[in-house]
Design brief:
Shape: globular
Distance between the termini: 37 Å
Order of helices and strands: HHHHHHHHHHHH
Structural class: mainly alpha
Largest sheet: none
Radius of gyration: 18 Å
Strand content: under 5%
Number of helices: 12
Length: about 250
Amino acid sequence: MEYFNAVDQYLDGAPDDLETIPSCQLVYARHPFSPRLCKFIATLPEGFAEVALSGRISVQCIQLLASVASWQSLIDERPTSPACPSSQTKEKMCRLFCEPRECARNATLILLYLKRSGKPLGLEYVICIGLAICVRHLSGENQTSLFDARLLDSMMKNIKAVKSQRPSDSEAILWLSLVVNWRTQSIQPVKEADDLLDFVITRHPELQTWKRISNVCRKFWWFECLKGDLESCWRKSFQRTRQLPYRAR
């Protein structure tokens, strides 16, 4: 409920409404980073570590990414015995039920803090929106909701606002767009998710082969069990952008 309340306030909150958000001063560290912050960054995959080291996302956003790092490896693990789950399997399932939801809530709270502070649209919004959509679904909520469609629209606006993208920015946006596209298609195609991925792929001609896409994605959290699904999402997007090249421009 905290997640949905925060999403509703982020999407619909008027300037006056934002005053009700608890004050949280987002911190943007400068080099040299503190040892504590370096420990958080050390837990991140290469792609997100490069984004964090740029100093352009807040300490709170880096901590959010580090929290994902603490449980994401559980996704690829297989249960020892489906008929009689071990205590470790039960613990894993409990963690994958609770921690993604907690992460989605925290990502949305950062979105509220960003909006309240008046920070311009950009990469940090994209990361938090993308994580909120992705990880909420990991707990089994497969059907895309109205909130997801509206968050996808907000994600697209923020991606378009990142005008001069560094390579690390482009790669993070690609990974998030691909995983979001996969995760929101479990019931039926979602146009906003398709448009998002089509736009990102069309914007970067160097990302026009699956080999290149998969190499980029392996710099982030890579799930071998999802390889086929992610490739399928990319191939469908590739076909759409070849047939209607003007769509995502």
